[in-house]
Amino acid sequence: MNSLNLGFQNKLVTSHHLSSRSHALGGTKTLDSVANGEQFVVQRLVATGASAEWLQQLEDLGFIAGEPVTIMARGAFGGDPLVVRIGLSTFALRKAEAACVQVELPREKWQSEIAA
What is the mean pLDDT of residues 82-111? Predict the structure, then answer.
């Protein structure tokens, strides 16, 4: 195994470790279930039922692992659509689309919760 592969494997282990810690703190959620104004980080996209075709569209919009994401506002009746900031862009998403985006607390946030 060359050093490039070894470095990649170390990143995978670290990423898995961070995800496990965040999950243990209750930080892993779907985007449709987070509170307005609270910042999370995209962990991954997951297909839920008939929404598999949305995954590529969401990825094209910038919903990729590691990107910061925040719910800015919700629709008045039923909370649909959601106004979502991903990176430096803002989009309106249906709750069903947002349910395909799995998010976790930013690393610095869960680290401060561990220290508390």
Answer: 87
């106004």: which residue's tokens? 83
Asked whether 99 and 31 are in contact (CB, 8 A), the reply is yes
Query: Which of 32, 21, 7, 16 minimizes the C-alpha distance to 108?
Result: 21
CATH number at residue 54: 2.30.30.90
Helices (H) and strands (E) in the chain, counts: 4, 6
DSSP 60-91: HHT--TT-EEEEEEE-TTTT-SEEEEETTEEE
pLDDT digits (tens, 9 = 90+) for 1-56: 333 433 333 333 333 333 444 444 455 899 999 999 999 999 999 987 666 788 99
The whole model's pTM is what? 0.69
Total structural domains in the chain? 1
Domain around 56: 3-115
Cβ distance 97 to 81 under 8 Å?
no
